[in-house]
Amino acid sequence: MDILILLLALFVLSLFLGVELITKVPPTLHTPLMSGTNAVSGITLVGALLAAGNDGSPMMVNVLGFIAVTLATINVVGGYLVTNRMLAMFKRK
Amino acid sequence: MNENLVNFIYLISGVLFILGIKGLTKPKTAVRGNMLSALGMLIAVVVTLLNMNTIDYTYVVAGVVAGSIVGSIMALRIQMTSMPQMVALLNGFGGGASLTIALAEYYTKLGATPASFAELLTPVVADSGAFGPGPEGTIALIAIGITVLIGALTLTGSLVAFAKLQELMKKSYGLPGGPVGNALFVIAALVAVALVVVNPGNVAAMVAVVLLALLLGLFLVMPIGGADMPVVIALLNSYSGIAAAFAGFILGNTVLIIAGSLVGTSGLILTRIMCVAMNRSLANVLFGKMAAGGETVDADEVYAGKVTSAQPDEIAMLLENAQRVVIVPGYGMAMAQAQHAVRELADAIEAKGAEVQYGIHPVAGRMPGHMNVLLAEAEVPYDNLVEMDAINPTFEDTDVVIVIGANDVTNPMARDVEGSPIYGMPILNVDKAKTVVVIKRSLSPGFAGLPNPLFAMDHTLMVYGDGKKAVVDMTTALNQL
User: Fold this and answer.
1) Residues forming beta bridges with residue B327, ordered by sequence position
2) Are strands B324-329 and B435-440 parallel, antiparallel or unpaired?
3) Residue B464: helix, strand or coil by DSSP?
4) Closest partner residue to A43 among B44, B64, B377, by Cβ?
5) Cα separation, B273 vs B230, whole angstroms
6) Which of B341, B343, B347, B352 is CA-nearest to residue B319?
């Protein structure tokens, strides 16, 4: 139970931090913000790796893990690349 | 590896994600922020792999290779006008990843995976003890159920959003009963989650959660029209983050919780900004009909005999003598791929000595910031892109406003006509300018289905035709003056 409370505290504090941070992002960068956060949500790759690579798990778990790894990697690679591509276009006078 | 060390390194990843988003608060630091965020991701992945005891690389490598290829192709080939579609897909994949992780964790802890379809529907004996001691087991099961629910509905909802944006699905279909029908689906799914929590071996209930949530995603997004997509995409963006955070609770993984909640709040804040910019509640966007209520206005009455049209070369003469010009782009500019042509027109106007700025309404386009990215692609400096609240007071000192592909966000009825369905929606006050030039194919109404009195005003000139061609013709004419 101790761990759960700590995780909950982390969750709630991150939500507040998120509000503080995101409200400071200017509207002109809202599209890169969305694709960038898509990339960040690809952090599920960490969980996916555990499911896909765990030797000794039933095959069904590995297959589900494989699907998760593929989808999360698309998010990570696609998200960061496209965000970078967009941000590189934003120029001053 | 030492578990504490692993968690410490996850913390570093979390900090890098935070710094990454902080970088996005200024265009100047944004590229570096994105790199920091990517570095955080790399560290988290490497540590996870190093920390795994027995590892079978077959599925890991196959998944990473397949995902990298698909992701790179999407990211490098997507056109900027199609960014909403790309983000919709990424939202969906994020939801799908959380869904499959939760299912994998469910079957791992259950210790039994079904060998056949019949077995899939037969409950096996299991208690929540397999998922953790005492209340921890129950909480783990609830987290799994919620992750599956949100993940699955994000997956199908995003695929529908993609289909709508790509115009593969043009009609709107809804569940009979609208919000009531959807509520029944939500309740049924929650009941199924409860059944899983009571008896984790009830695999059929878990299958029911998946199916109900997949259907719910379809039914939630199918009735929503194209112009409301900015809200839907932002909301699904939030869901994909929340699903990731809940997956973090299942796995007891700190970095998933940090990253997931940042994404979740980001999506929610964008959703709120979009709703405020349309003066509508989230419930109204999801379940309401835009034009419901309010007195109907006859388009013929508004337009009859009052609309003045003009040719591009006449507009060029106007522009030659202007001191200040504001360009107001909308989704029509994206549709016509006219962003480069617009930039060239702005260059030509500036060459004649006028100041040019762009007025950007928050819901212009199909996602938050859509117009800004398109204009950035056309190499318009971002200082020239001005937000609604900042540009509105300047319209009175503006000689010419060029509206291209925008309609409802310039409709003065939203400001002046109480009882109009769009009354109260903040608009760009383009009608305050000395002359308004509207480039449009016809007088057809925008998404709200309302006539726009702006088009009939004495100082408004309509230029009919394809947006890109009209802009190019103006530029050519202006350069010859």
Assistant:
1) B358, B402
2) unpaired
3) strand
4) B44
5) 10
6) B352
How many Cα atoms occupy the beta-carbon half-sphere of B381 within 13 Å? 7
A9 near B CB under 8 A: no
Facing residue for B113 by CB, picked from A27, A58, A66: A58
Residue of A nearest to B389 (CA): A27
Q: Calculate helix-pair angle for B83-110, B57-77, nearest 10 degrees.
A: 170
Closest CA to A67 of B428, B306, B368, B151: B151
What are the distances in angstroms from CA B80 to CA A32, B12, B377?
11, 33, 7
Cα(B109)–Cα(B27) distance, rounded to whole angstroms?
Answer: 46
Task: Indicate yes or no: CB of B255 within 8 angstroms of CB of A43.
Answer: yes
Asked if residues B360 and B388 have their Cβ atoms less than 8 Å apart, the reply is: yes
Q: What is the pTM of this model?
A: 0.91
Q: Which residue of B has its CA nearest to A75?
A: B90
Q: Which of residues 34-73 of A touch B (CB under 8 A)?
A: 34-73
Q: Write the pLDDT tens digit of every residue in B72-106.
A: 999 999 999 999 999 999 999 999 999 999 999 99
The pLDDT, as a whole number, for residue B182 is 85
Q: What is the DSSP string of B264-305?
A: HHHHHHHHHHHHHHHT--HHHHHH--TT-SS----HHHHHTT
